Amino acid sequence: MLYNELGKSGLKVSRLGFGTMRLPTVNSNADIDEVEATKMLKYGIENGINLIDTAYPYHSKELDGNGNSEKFIGKFLKENSYRDEIILSTKSPSWLMEEKSDFDKYLDIQLEKLQTDYIDIYLLHSLTEPDWFKVKDLDVLDFLDDCLSSGKVKHVGFSSHIEVDYLIEILDEYPKWEVVLTQMNYLDEYYQSGIMGLDYLKQINVGSMIMEPLRGGRLVNNIPAEVQKLWDMAEVKRTPVEWALQYLWNRDDADCVLSGMTSLEQVKDNIRIASTEDIISENDQELIREVARTYRTFLGNRCTRCGYCMPCPHGVDIINCLTEYNIAHMMNDPKASAMQYFSLIDDDSRADSCIDCKECIPFCTQMLDIPKELQKVYEYFGSEFDHF
Ligand code: SF4
Ligand code: SF4
After folding, report:
1. Least packed by Cβ within 10 Å: which of 193, 229, 245, 282?
2. Is the pLDDT of residue 387 over 60?
3. Quick one: fold of 3-284?
4. Which ligand has an atom closest to residue 317 CA?
5. Ligand 1: which of 303, 317, 320, 354 to mutate, most ligand atoms within 8 Å of CB?
């Protein structure tokens, strides 16, 4: 295993972190297959992984309920006496906070679930812009100060799918952020905060944890023939997982890549890759860019996320509606995109809130008939996640 410094936190982290939102299950998402998951985690730790990441809702019955991942991890660490060897990361469910005391309430619940009296890295989970303003009004920064001085939390940060401007705004408001969890893979350099966000984190020495390195497995399953043809032309032959992970580890701004592993085979393969120094040549870097361009030809519309059509006077999140529709087509995985669509976009900002006023059309740099495109998005995703 190879290790990196996690920014100014001073933590030395394995460059592969164990994400625990896709542990093996029996019957339902809430029923973790504990025997199999224990084997996977033990193998991971014995072979150098020293960071485990979980969150309040992972492996819950509902999309954002009280999940079983933290409970299982707490039990696993206790029974195997691993707590002190592991950097434990979990997340405060920002969207559930209604009053100031809720921060402490949820932290105490999480400490109990995790059977520990401290959390190494505590992230405000999936901060959206409205959530950030809400938690700021509830004095979240005082809460974080208190957590740090009481020792209940060693390092604080946030996870987010926001655009780079908001990322920087949040980072600049609090000097004690030490870690940010952000999405990155070779398709997403310009999606959400992307490479500009990582660059800023590097500049201010805030550690970066990476989510979705394989885009939920979509960069490695059902590879389109056009993409496979390109991979076959590479100077060095690599598996799709090797391409995706080594792309990140060839960057100098991706400190710890979280992989949400589902089987022991995946753990073994990822550890093998994480333990190999593999410098990608300039030609092969160009090939990765060509693969990304090829994936983009499968997009459902031409939206470039330029933002000129925003804000919609009726509150429609045009950019993200069109983007999730695009990703669903590009990756041929409607269910995964639907999960993003329904969890990242508020009820009243989804495509079905468009009233066809046409005010946005003249602003579209790609000359899209935006309400018509939104209608396609609505027909595709429907109005409830259950539709899938
Ligand atoms: S057509 Fe739809 S998306 Fe465009 S401005 Fe009107 S309500 Fe908003
Ligand atoms: S102006 Fe057009 S291309 Fe730009 S974000 Fe809006 S819909 Fe997409």
Report:
1. 282
2. no
3. TIM Barrel (3.20.20)
4. 1
5. 354
